[in-house]
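Could you join me in thinking about how sequence relates to backbone shape in a protein? We need material for that, and I hope you will provide a protein of your own picking. Label the sequence line and the structure token line clearly, so we can match residues to local backbone shapes. Would you write everything just below, so we can both look at the same thing?
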Amino acid sequence: MTSPVESFADLGLGSALLKALADIGYETPSPIQAQCIPILLEGHDLIGMAQTGTGKTAAFALPLLEKIDVKISKPQALILTPTRELAIQVAEALQSYAHGLPGFHVLPIYGGQSYTIQLKQLSRGAHIIVGTPGRVMDHLERKTLNLDNLKTLVLDEADEMLRMGFIDDVEWILERTPAEHQTALFSATMPEQIRRVAQKYLVEPREIKIKSATATVAAIRQVYWQVSGMHKLDALTRILEVEEDFDAAIIFVRTKTATVELADKLSARGYAAAALNGDLNQQMRERVIEQLKSGALDIVIATDVAARGIDVPRVSHVVNYDIPYDTEAYVHRIGRTGRAGRNGNAILFVAPREVRMLRTIERATRQPIAPLTLPSRADVTNKRVSDFKEKVTGVLNAEGLDFFANIVAQISEEQNVGAEEVAAALCLMAQEGKPLQIAGEDPAPPRPMPADSRDARRPTSFGDRERKPRFEGGDRPRFEDRGDKPRFEDKQRRPAPAGDMVRYRIDVGRDHGVQVKDIVGAIANEAGIESRFIGRIGLYDESSTVELPAGMPAEASNALKRTRVRGVPINLRPDEGRPDAGGERKFEGDRGGFKKKKFGDR
């Protein structure tokens, strides 16, 4: 058995990357990073089987960066991802790891983004391309993306690309890469089709399989707040004020700088808060932890590395102010609460684009994480008033109030006001810079968090057209003026979107092995149209129909015309009622029924 790797420095990475990792807060490699990085640095092909959230992005990103020649401004690595969200996430991770590599450029390319922007960026040069299969294919066909200098190709979440119907597109791309290059394939599972692709395109790959080490944390209440409509700091202070049984908290952020900034802001708002990060020497670290234990501090803002080993029973809450990079980090974080047999509370801040990680954490911990409703202004006011009353009640039971009662009586007589008005003035003075009533408006409630990561699309707008019911009253009309009825139509599963819809025809159907999910995935990825805006889909033998919102931007329409599903160009155009080659059902009035006729039979 090999001994565990204690440091990224043991993996053969250069000083620039090691410094960037230290600045981010990475200290000890995760299991997949420890095993994959040396293999990829040595140039071997690799199959990595690991769940999302185990740190696999760094497992392939760091070796890529180590081997990049920044002097050559041409694509030297290509990373294929199933969704635009993952492409952006991977590109952002690469950019943060490459902080110490001057001149490095990574470019995400995906459907729904302007071609003009992508073409300008490609013309300037990029060292690593991160993209969805459809858009990468399109650039290769246009010859706007050149892979002649490609050294490494990474397939990220290969099983997800298979599930979304992109595996044929992936093979199309693989066939157009240089003969001599390194290939790394990462997948949570290994279906037969993925195994076949690996056997065909990878050369003597090393195989690494990582089992998630996370476990259920049953004694901890886990909730999340969807970041929306309010600054995270304002939301944090509202939540901390109304949380029941609050004693002390550890708030996790990603960077050392963020610990200091957030600690200063909380201190300015009256909280006893301090930063805990890797820049503190051992003596200062121990002092902060001792203050947290004794009650001199109520809140510590920490990075993952700095918080390791903290065991303070009074920590009632853990707040993930920044969502962690992997599920193991999440479990380690929330393990700081719920100690010594007590119940704990874990609060997770989740931006809409981070929903994939939220769902991954739920699977890893085998517990659903419930949404947290942001406390309203009234909630915060009521809590502050309640606390204030409690303090006043405590003072009322004290001795020696006669002197102060005489002062109130004097003020009342001198100002010709009642004792209640004097008491109100004293209450106003006693707020000590923390008003009992908070100003401002409550933010609008956020849109519901999608249950599936593929629906975590950015909002799509098709102008300022009125949102009105598609059909008013009665049953949904059937297209009885059309003869060609598909043998399967996606109308039970998919509710009718609001607003006017246009019916389009595309050149892929059952004969191409297409399913409804393939069409939905392609449209959502390439045109940036949320799945809820996609109407009924009819599958025929050689073509299909799909309903899309009226007033669709020309850019989205043009992108769909060039989109491929299972390797076949869909050629989107308005449906003109042309019957499908699979046959139509045509009404024969004299015979009082329907007769199946082949297309072209007149």
